[in-house]
């Protein structure tokens, strides 16, 4: 961490995992989620891929909501994050692809909003150093695919 | 994304946010979570900071669980992720500090396990390009602080 940076702290929180993939992860005095192994589809609960997608989609959605408001527009932006677990020469990796649809503005303006949001959304900033992270504007969402890939 | 990389796809999933910070984020056919603004403590639900912490703590916890198993040890590793929202010259950022306690092995062996886990856990790999991400071994957890910072 670059300690030379000057920050004003605004908010802090915690998330705990003591159970690995067999139990719960939780926020003290906050939400608790059952967690599960993505490769065991019989297990209920959320896996790290889904929790990351929920974090990024909510952060980008909230940032776009703020940008829409600044432009006197109602909130219509939709963010779908597709996470793929892949195995390569460096072991397991996640590919994170964020797809943004903003139906009430032009494609060009949507591109501008997403470009602004990328630079403001803290989760997007955290991922921006990874070549596995992509974000783009779509005019319509394509049907999604989910589950274990044989 | 570096398309020259060769990957085998193992699993894929989606997370959707249409509501910004006022409603729900969800996995199609999976978990749904109420989302909330971290700066409004009266709102129930999880915020992007907490969802990211749940993802990272679960990914690191699961990776450490695998490493413990490879060493014929029961799973005792505990991962606490502290996320701080800060405001700096580049706008809002998250500082992500993962703290790992593995009570049934020595501090030196815990350092070795965490060093291995950092290189294997896909969420840790995604964050490793950010100077805002840190991870370290602790012998005991300190009391945590949560909430809006005035």
TrEMBL record, chains A, B:
InterPro entries: KH_dom-like_a/b, OHR, OsmC/Ohr_fam, OsmC/Ohrsf. This is Dihydroneopterin aldolase. GO terms for biological process: response to oxidative stress. Pfam families: OsmC (PF02566). It comes from the Bacteria. Belongs to the OsmC/Ohr family.
